[in-house]
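input
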Amino acid sequence: KTAYEIVSRDWSSDVCSSDLPVRMPSPVSLLRLLKDEAGTFSQNQRILARHVLANYQSVAFATVAQLAPKAGVSEATIVRFAKSLGFSGYPEFQKEIRRLVRADLRGAERFRLGAEKKPVGQTPLDRITEKERENIAALYQSHDAAAFAGAVGMLRRASAVVVVGTRSTAPLAYHFGFALNKIAVNATRITSITAETYEELSRLDRRACVVVIGFPRYLRELVELLEFAKGRGLATLTITDSAFSPLRGRISLYAPAESASFVAFHCAPLVLINALVHELSIADERKTVAALNRFETVAESRNYFVKG
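output
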């Protein structure tokens, strides 16, 4: 079956929609991990890995009992294999496989899923808000306090912050950069990558921080720019959906972005960004208040706002 047919079958069920992003000890693509580490697996594990690589779309919704005879290994081998990769068990391993399947979906496939006939009594807002509520709930459950604190510290120490987000993540980059500047963090926003973007990063000193925001389907231009920033020795922070995302910074923060449509669902990433800004603002209250007062003085002098 195609990725669309498999995901369509369980799109509205808890099996598909409640998956949480997996935080793994080795932040590399799961499928690449199965390929690259094959030499370290036992014979039965290699057999299982080859089956998963060739049939991961069906593995995404197969129980252990269903997978074992198809792969030609025991159920115990499957469970031990999942744990050897750093997962708590087969269900968590399967959740990551499902995330990969959904990330493969093209725009037309996502549209067909979102355009399916809605249940009687469901309003236009119900399906969208339900998925976003699930994303925010998953953000709470997968929150990594140590990584979050590290990100706040990295941003505080930076001589300059460059926030990068293109296409669907451009609004997130704009919002983050605007908020940072409002509390006197020296921030610039990049919402379109050109040759000049690389020149801009090459002029940054080593105390600068580059923030890259990206979600499935992951844009190659973001991955390449992030690698360039790393090569320059710059501090890097990524905001993405999973430890298996190709966007891996010195620090990575994860926010679920599961979508029930062909358009991006970014409520959870926005919550995460706002939390970062809030923590930065209270880390130096005097600096924040002074910056906000300067803003109000300019706003008053230029008559920014309509007064009620």
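quick obs: Residues 156 and 284 are 9 Å apart (CA to CA).
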